[in-house]
């Protein structure tokens, strides 16, 4: 019944009538399907060394004069199929972006609720921490955290290195959630339903969790949608700089960096296609976020 009510609600109706949302959603579904089904639909296994042939290295796309129908988008300097590498790389980029955004959301919403509801010195302390975080570019903070993590754990397994990368992105992305939720909570805590809950002795934690939180999640959902695209771009930037995803499981940023080394040699397809997929993924997510923001604003419907 809840899903039916949500489907028939004003927000869902506005989203169904938004061409931008439908186009972005369709594109994102296509990209996610390609990433999730890479093991099934990818024509090659680009990271399996036993299947690579250096004689096929740096082949142009299939429609070029020297291209091969075996490799639709060409190959890189090691003979890996670019199309297959894109599917596997997109899976890693999307996973890092979604997990990092989820962690940032939990941290930011929790701290924002506490700061907005309690106020006083707690609010002042948390907001000063937010001001400090905002004074540094996210890329530099992520580089610092990632560098410290790799220095402390130089022999870390690839999965642990990936966790350090996710932590670096998450710890730079919680501030917008905290500030947004804090402002909305300060408005909600003055309303009658919160005062009534206090009068009957409802604990503060339950008031924040059961009453205030559902009423401040609208802006948070929009922010989270946009933040996924930002997290993917930060991951791609870190991977491009060589401190992101391990080389054994490269993401889109790593593929762009590899292709950039051969760009001046005329092998444009090695970096252009990963860059194009990165742009499409970011645009589709941001397009959905913009449409969701408009749908949640009654003045724009």
From TrEMBL:
GO terms for cellular component: plasma membrane. This is ABC transporter permease. The keyword Membrane applies. Residues 90-289 form the ABC transmembrane type-1 domain. The chain crosses the membrane at residues 21-42, 92-118, 125-145, 160-181, 216-241, 268-292. The keyword Membrane applies. SUPFAM superfamilies: MetI-like (SSF161098). Keywords: Cell membrane, Membrane, Transmembrane, Transmembrane helix, Transport. The lineage of its organism: Bacteria, Pseudomonadati, Pseudomonadota, Betaproteobacteria, Burkholderiales. It comes from the Bacteria. Belongs to the binding-protein-dependent transport system permease family. It is a multi-pass membrane protein. GO terms for biological process: transmembrane transport. It is found in: Cell membrane. Pfam families: BPD_transp_1 (PF00528), OppC_N (PF12911). Signal peptide: none annotated.
